Each structure stands twice: as structure tokens, then as C-alpha cells.
Amino acid sequence: MSRPLIAxxxxxxxxxxxxxxxxxxxxxxxPIPGPLQVAEAMDRARRKAPGRPVELAFYGxxxxxxxxxxxxxxxASAHGMVRRGLAQSVRVTLSPMSAxxxxxxxxxxxxIRAVEVPVLTFDPAVLRRLAARRRADxxxxxxxxxxxxxxxxxxxxxxxxxxxxxxxAVTSAELLARTRPDAARVLPALALEGTWGATHFEAGLxxxxxxxxxxxxCRHVVRRLRTxxxxxxxxxxxxxxxxxxxxxxxxxxxxxxxxxxxxxxxLRAAATDALRAAFAFPLREFSFVVHPREEAYLRGHENRALxxxxxxxxxxxxxxxxSPHVPRGxxxxxxxxxxxxxxxxxxxARKAS
Length: 353
Known about the structure:
Blueprint: E1 5-11, H1 35-48, E2 54-60, H2 68-83, E3 89-93, H3 96-101, H4 104-109, E4 112-120, H5 124-129, H6 138-148, E5 152-157, H7 166-179, E6 183-186, E7 191-192, H8 196-202, H9 211-227, E8 231-235, H10 239-242, E9 249-251, H11 258-278, E10 285-290, H12 295-299, H13 304-313, E11 317-322, E12 332-335, H14 340-352
Parallel strand pairs: 1-2, 2-3, 3-4, 4-5, 5-6, 6-8, 10-11
Antiparallel strand pairs: 7-9, 10-12
């Protein structure tokens, strides 16, 4: 069964609890969407893919921090879409403190089935730099409460925040993995115009990560979360799409291809380990079998990544085949240039294990 198509409605920042790095630095409030925007988002999604299930998603700011009237109107409109069978379910974004105090039974009754939680970090020093009024373990407590109530949980981590380091980012990933969220977004911190982060960057109080540093850190964060069973659904923030305010990026690791770069690094490391384990002198020909979505990651731009592997192991030929039965991130290496039967046998063995 295919996943539902997302009908996004962006909630503005500016109403969030203290510590949100995306909120305007001077408390500027942006217009709050209403039932009309909900209806328009649903109409766009249904016209885009007629007959496909739709999930109405409130992205961006903390829904529960909105004023009561607009919040109630949005929830009522979303519930109406579910009751009429137009939306299969609803997804909302709640800060850790909102997720700890919101009436979860009422949210489920309104058709909400998934909750995104911007945990950001588990490091107390980083949270103090953000002036967040919550304990470092509040994010984990929020995710646990949501999971116990039967919600699908999607956590956000933001490596590279002021006061953070590669080590604090990896430690946060390890702590997040223990809470076993269903999915995660890994969003390296950016200095966005008009936000708290921009003020600190312009004052010389914070130097955001470079793209290379972000790729190196996110590679470890993604690998740790994925090892714990958490699905990675996004790597890299896209302000013009993800935030209603659409602020300009002043500094930081902004790259629309951030996920591709991270996934390519992860697969390159896995492929190197697998090839090293299978290598036997004097063989000079090997075959990779990877998930279809990872072939481009393994080959790299103009086959350069594959060529580097050939040169590293001094190979004459390195073939690449695909199979949907190979788990993502776990390439299979076969000695020689594999034929269909050999591939099927190796994939079958991997699937059974």
C-alpha cells in the first residue's frame, strides 16, 4: 500500500515556546492559516493524485502554541476533512513541552495520527544557549508519551546549533535512538535572516558548520538513528519550502542536495567495508547489488565514486546491479561479474537472514 500524499499547511513561527531557532528574533508574528488554507491544500493534493489517500499535515511552527481561537479553527477544519473521508489522517508539529501537556486523547479523536517533535538537541548547554525553558530530557519524554498514546512520532535533530559540536550531535542521536521514534528529520542549523541565529551569527557569537562539516556530522547521526530502526525522512532544511516565513539563508550548510551527499558518503563507507570483506587475491572483478534507489549514490557523479573504489582496490572491473530485496545501506558484494542466478541466490540469502 502506497503512503498517503501529504497536503501541507505551514504554521508560522513566532508563537513557539522559547528556544525555537526559527522564530523571528524580535517577536514578529506572521499570519496564521485558517480553514480556507486547509481546504486549498487538500484541493491541491487531491488534484495532483486523484484517488490517492491524503494526509493533512501542519508543518512549521508549534500548532499548540497558537492562540486558542485560530488553533481550534484549524483542528476543527482538519477533523472535518477526516470525517468527510477527504483526508485519511492528520499530522501536526508540537514542541516537546506542548507534546507533554496537550490532551492526546482529544487529538486522536480529531484524526491526528502522527506528531512531529522538534527535539533539536539533548545537550543541556546547547539548550541554555537557545534560552529554551525545558530540561534536556523533555524531548525524550515527549516522544515516549506520544508513542504510548499510539501516535507515529517524527523527531527533528539540528546538528550545528550554537554551543554544539560533532560530539554533542552524535550523542544527541544516540539518546534519540533510545526513544525509538518512527522517523527523524536531520536538519543542520542555518543562520536564517531575522531569527535568533542570524543575530548571533552577525555578532560573531556563532559560526555555523560548513557543508563539508555538516555532511561529516550528519553521516554519523543518520547511521546511528538508522541502526536503531528509525526511518530518515529528511536531511537538510529547505527554508523556502519548510517555513512559512521563507527567510533567506545568511550562513550555514545550505545545500538542496544535502541528503544525497550524506547518503552517498554512507553508502561509500558500507561499500568499502563490504568489498574489503569479500576481497581475495588475485581476483580483479567484483559485482555490487544494491537497492534501486541507491545505485546513483554508489556510482556518484559521472561514476566517479565507483571509479575511486576500483582504484582503491586496483580492480579491473566493478559492476553494479540492483534489487529491491537488498536493504538500503547494505550493499551485497559478489566475486566476479555476477549473472542473474548468482544475484538471485545472494539476494535470497540476504533476505532470509
